[in-house]
Write a structure and sequence with these properties.
The structure holds 2 protein chains of 2 kinds. Chain A is mainly alpha-helical. Chain A has one helix at about 5-35. Chain A is rod-shaped, with a radius of gyration of 18 Å. Chain B has helices spanning about 15-35, 45-75, 80-115, 120-140, 145-160, 165-170, 170-175, 195-245, 250-255. Chain B contains 9 helices and no strands. Chain B starts with 12 loop residues before the first helix and ends with a helix. Classes of the chains: A mainly alpha, B mainly alpha. The interface between A and B is large, with 34 and 46 residues.
Chain lengths: ~45, ~260
């Protein structure tokens, strides 16, 4: 494949970016929900 | 409100299943995008970047439309439920992420196809403008005030900002530029892709939609929990202020005099 490194890097940037954001959201969510009782979380 | 540590998160059984299906979709997209789909006869191998670029652009549009819809539901329904405002905020944040991916992916595709990362082409410029607009929207959400003020301010902005999307989408029809015309959603209904390439592009759209759903669910729940914590923090601060402003009782006065 021509320009394989360039193309694969695009995939790494895309999925790496989504993964980093997902990690950030999960961490923030965990930090916030740990301080709340279960009855105040509509999803529990 | 009593605060107890439960060690739970924003995950549920359903979101875990959704997460696993999404990861499978990502693996599927990488397999088809990088290995199984053929190179394009005009664009060559750079077409593989479009399997990320086009779905992320579509999902950014969807995210901003959801933001506008949720904002409208907050503003124009009698209940004014803050749940709609949180959904709007979560969707806009994920939309900005996908728009950023669209811009970066597009620049990298442009480097291979046009030999430059950026041109002030109509599609590129309007897309960058849309990206900056929603960064502004997220900044407005962080201004001070009550949750209701946040919801009203950002709701009005979301209804205005969404009007940019048709301008971005039809910019390739309205102005002559470097960016290619629509590949699937063409005004005459023709599809310019066929076979495995079209299948890979549709796989990308499905995978990005799953990613969007998973991210928005978790972000909305996080915003809900953070708003509740803000409420609790405010209640505690008010209680402390009340305690400080209450005059000391007689026994305390006596103790102070002696």
């Amino acid at each position: 494949m021509e320009d394989a490194g360039f193309i694969v890097t695009s995939y790494v940037i895309t999925f790496g970016g989504v993964l980093a954001y997902a990690w950030y959201v999960l961490r923030r969510g965990k930090k916030a929900t740990e301080q709340l009782p279960d009855d105040s979380k509509p999803w529990v | 409100m009593a605060l107890t540590a439960t060690g739970r998160s924003t995950s549920t059984h359903a979101t875990r299943v959704l997460g696993i299906v999404t990861l499978a979709g990502v693996a599927w997209l990488i397999l088809f995008g990088l290995f199984l789909s053929p190179a394009d006869k005009n664009q060559g191998e750079s077409v593989r970047i479009l399997y990320l670029h086009a779905p992320s652009a579509w999902l950014a549009y969807l995210a901003f439309v959801v933001t506008a819809g949720a904002s409208a539901l907050y503003l124009f329904t009698k209940k004014h439920s803050l749940g709609w405002d949180r959904l709007a905020g979560a969707s806009a944040e994920v939309g900005v992420l996908f728009m950023g991916i669209t811009l970066v992916g597009g620049m990298r595709w442009g480097r291979l196809t046009w030999s430059v990362f950026w041109r002030w082409d109509a599609r590129l410029t309007t897309t960058a403008f849309l990206f900056v607009t929603y960064i502004g929207y997220l900044a407005v959400r962080r201004l001070g005030g009550t949750f209701e003020q946040r919801a009203r301010r950002s709701g009005v902005l979301a209804l205005l900002a969404v009007l940019e999307i048709p301008l971005v989408h039809f910019s390739v029809e309205l102005w002559r530029g470097l960016h290619q015309d629509a590949t699937i959603m063409r005004p005459n209904g023709d599809v310019k892709l066929d076979g495995l390439m079209l299948f890979t592009l549709l796989s990308g759209i499905v995978t990005f939609t799953l990613m969007y759903a998973w991210l928005v669910i978790h972000r909305t729940r996080t915003l809900t929990a953070e708003d509740m914590l803000d409420d609790v923090g405010l209640e505690l601060a008010l209680e402390e202020r009340r305690r400080e402003s209450t005059p000391p009782n007689i026994a305390e006065k006596g103790a102070l005099l002696s």
